[in-house]
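Side project, low priority. Logging it here so it doesn't get lost.
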Amino acid sequence: MASGAVAPPAPPLTGARRGFGGRGVLHRQRLAATPMHAVHYFHAKSVSSLRKDEPVVSANGGKEEMVADSINVARKASLPGLSSSLSNRTTVTPTPLHLAEPSDLRFNRLRPSVEESDCKYKRYFGRYVAQEAIMDEEYWIAAWLRAENHYEDQSGDRYVESFKRKYASQEFHALKKRCGKQFGEKYTCFVAVKNDDLTRTVLNSVVGTLDLCVRHPLHGEKYPVEPGNSPFYSRIYQPDQPKFAYLTNVCVAKYARRQGIASNMLLLAIDAARLDGAETIYIHVHKDNLPAQRLYDHIGFKMVDMDGARQSSDLRLLSFSKH
C-alpha cells in the first residue's frame, strides 16, 4: 500500500515551433502527443459513447460530477508514472484484451443502489459499503485494482500500462472461474463501493477488493501455502477436518486509502467465513509490509508458529481464530 509520486503532465503547447523551410510543426507535435496504442485501451463503442464529457447528476443538492473524456484519460494513461486510478474523482480503466469467455461486461452500466443489490453479505461504514461482488463490472475493477497494486512500484516503466492490462484481463477471467466453482471450495470476491446519492457507473464506484476461500484441508495439507507456490497435493479433501478460510488479494485504490476500507472488508470477510463454517482464517503478509502488519494485528490476527514447516523468507502466515 505504498504511495508513489505522480509525474505532472507536460504543459500545453502555446505556439508552433519553426522547422525546416520556415514551416510550423505544431500539428506534428499534437499527433505525437496521442500514441495510437492509448486509444486502443477502449472499445470503439465505449469511445463513441464517452466522446464528450458526461455529467453525472447528484440526487441531493443538485451537485454534479463530471466523468473525464475517455480519449483524454487514454492519453494520460499512456504517460509513464501516471495511473488512471490516482484521481480522487473518478476511475477509468481500460477494457480487457479479449473476452475469451461469454461476459456481461458493460462499461457504462450504472451502479444500482445498495438496497437494490442482491448481496448476501454487506457491511456499512462511513461513505462506503463492503459487499460481495456479483456483477462482471465489479469483477473487472477488482482485477484492475490488483493489477495496479502489482505494478505499483514500476510506474516508470514505459510498458507498464500494457502489462497491467494483460494482468487484469487474465485475473478477470480467473476470478470469475474461481467464484463460479463451488465444489469443494467456496470462493467469494468482496468489494468496497461508494455509498452516496451520486449516479455513478459501477466502475467508478469500486475502491477496494479482497478474496475469501473457505474449504476443508487437502490430504497432506497442514497450513495454507503461499499464493503461486502450491506444492503437489492429492486433490482429496478431508471432510473430517475443520474448515478453514484463506484471505488474499487485499488492495485499495490509492486515492481511497486510510479510510478504514481494508479493515472493514476484512471484518466482513471474517463474518462470512464464520457463517460458512470456518474455524480459523489465514492470511499471508510480506515481512516488510509494516502498515499491513499493523492492520492485521489491530483486527486480531496472530503469527502462526509453523513448527518447522517450510515457508518463504519474505511472507509470514497469520491466523485469526473465533475462539
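Brief comment: The helical segments are 26-32, 36-39, 44-49, 70-77, 136-150, 160-180, 261-275, 290-299.
Revisit when time allows.
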